[in-house]
Amino acid sequence: MSDDLFAAIDALLERPKPADDLPVPAERERLRKAAEYTQEDLAKALKTRRETIVRWEAGSTDPRPPKREIYIRFLATLALRHGTVEPTEWLRRAQAAGLAPATVQAPAPAPMAEPTPAAGPAETVPSAPASVPAAFGGDQADQAMELDRDAAGDLVAGQPQPCVRCGRPTPYRSQGRPVHMGGWCTAAAQPATAEQAPAPVVAPVAASRQAAPAGAPTAGPARRTGSSRPVASSRARKAPAKTATAAAEGPSDWEAAAAARFPSGPLAVLDVAPDGKGLVAYLADGTVAPTAPAGRTLAAVVEWALEQRLGSPRLHRHGKDGDALVVIADAALAEIGLPRIGRDEKTEFVQRLGQLPKTHKSVKQVERAGWLLTQRGLGPWARIYRTPEDGKRQCVQLCIPAWGALTSGGWTIPDDLDAADLARLLGTYAKRVLTPRGSTAVSGLELVTALRPPTRAVRTESGWTSGPVEGSRPKDGFDPAPPEVPDVHPLAQDREEGGELVTEAWDWHRELTDAEKAAPFAVGLDVNMAFLAAAGRLVLPLSGPVHELNPAFDPKTPGSWLVDLSSIDTNPLLPSPFTADGSRPTGPAWYTTAKVAYAVELGAKVRPTEGWLRHESGPYLDPWHKRLRQAYVDTMAALGVPLTLADTDPVAFLDAMAAVKQGDPAEVAVLTAIKQSAKGAIGKMRERPRGHGYKPGERWAALDRPTWDPLMRALVIDTATVNLHRKLRKMAGDTGLYAIAVLSDCAVFAAPGPGALDVLTKPDGTLTTSLRLGVSPGMVKFEGSRPMSEIAELLADQANPARHIKAGGFVSADE
Fold it and tell me: How do 810-811 and 521-527 pair as beta strands?
């Protein structure tokens, strides 16, 4: 028996290990998407299931022969057409094994002049081979050609331009000239000069297709259309149209390189293993990490997170990659020496203090291991970092739910969620929004600068320096104008009484008309993500204020204007759009550009007497709006409310909305977090000082953020108010119904029935589009209904019915 076992082990040890002939998982997915094939296309061609392709691209399983060779051929062919990222050894192996052609046809670029070293935006990427091997078409001179690096030793990447060797786009430079990294440059025999267009390399693509095994997918110059159905390769295919932004940025080499750096995903949740021995780490994609921290210290957890390559790719080419997030489940606290919440300041975590004392043994262990903590110390959301070496950032963020990290700040995590589901929940938020960095408001604000980084690396004759990013705000921000700041701000200390720009959402109600008193019900309609919808394409300040007297009003110039709008007549059955309580203005006051422009739209002739204006402006929050909007729409679809449902079947939409909170608890929590991220980020643009001991007139830390600007907040809120007032006016014209109360983005109407359709139906039986029913931000949903008798009682008590409309039997499921 033992002889047989020894023989079996010997045979196992002698068995050759599978060659490293597949790219990293993230690269497999990127290559497929670059060629515009869906997972269904590939699965059909390989006669397998889509779930198998998902696992291959996630790295949880690898294909086995004979499909392994076919899959490698597919990826290698795409890599030669679209480029690959380091490591590239797999491509060499595939070519050596005859699984991929040596070259493929590359598009011929237009002639170009040799770029100067400073041409194009610069960016650092991870280190990679700095020469072009002769095996890929280089001679001795080319082998000595070093790729440009920055002062930290990292490769410099710029706007993709045609490689001077092969003509395919590349972001890398050598002495300012665009060249490919070693490993996948399919260069011609003679490199092109700066004055000469690189000649395209012609390869036997058709022959390689004929030699492909049956069932293997083909890849070539032809592109796919948006359809998921395979298209014959002989048929001409039209490339999908690119947006202006995508066309301007060119191929997303930086996105592919960034994604490949984090194969384990953005985060992990550490918990005690099911057998009670040691720790286990659950990843965001639902898998379990192959290893867990070996040591039982916090320093070991940090080292492990970096070894696992946890993290998230940057959202902008000049931004920063997201740090790894490690969530420590309650049961795992004791395993790594962390205390639970309590009252003993020396041995437990005291919530009042917000962090462990610096004398705690866990803090000391971290410091002895060479790690540092930020000023916030070791608390519910902690950052542990090390002084950068070789220009590479080393930082891990901790989330400790037992200390209250996920019980406030906009997070609504279900109590019975296990570690695996928590990893899925936070991973979903990270994928759709951003890796959590604290409260939802903090994460929402961090998303703004992740999408609009304030600086980028700029190459000059004397070296590298920091330069601005087009469309972003300065790194240190700038002080706003005196009328715009809160009363504790240094600029407000000498401000005259009444000289403040007052911007708040509506809180308004009025008396009922006789016809409204006779109505049996009152129905509330709520605008989805009203502030987020207002931020899209909104022109916002990118520079500091300039004080001007008697300025001519320009609706394209963001700023604050001192103007008298008291003469404007608005319908008394609707709130005035110019005040927070809906009353008519009584004299000159400060208004944002959004409200003054609306006054002009209503027919007023405005004559500002004073202004604080910004002459540099742009749609600063537009990328933020687009990402959060898509996150919201995707989450609602996951909860059973697709984007177009209200247009095709309004009744089904209302039923689906009523069932939202009964859906997947993790998705419901993500939905709430997305909404709170948008709302909280707008609020933090005017964040006031926190903590005891603050004295009015002192500066506080938030003032130095590029996103701290009360005017931005005011412009978003005012735009949302103007948008709603415009819709309420049109609603009255369509249906004859006027709002009887408004609270922020919720409007209440007298109605003949208790449902949303009783309000939104026009006399001709069609639905109005003034307040359009739908899931998209800016559209409306059913908020609630109450009998009119109860509404009359609330009004008699001077209470706003919009604040209480959800208390009835018809309650919105999406709040």
Answer: unpaired
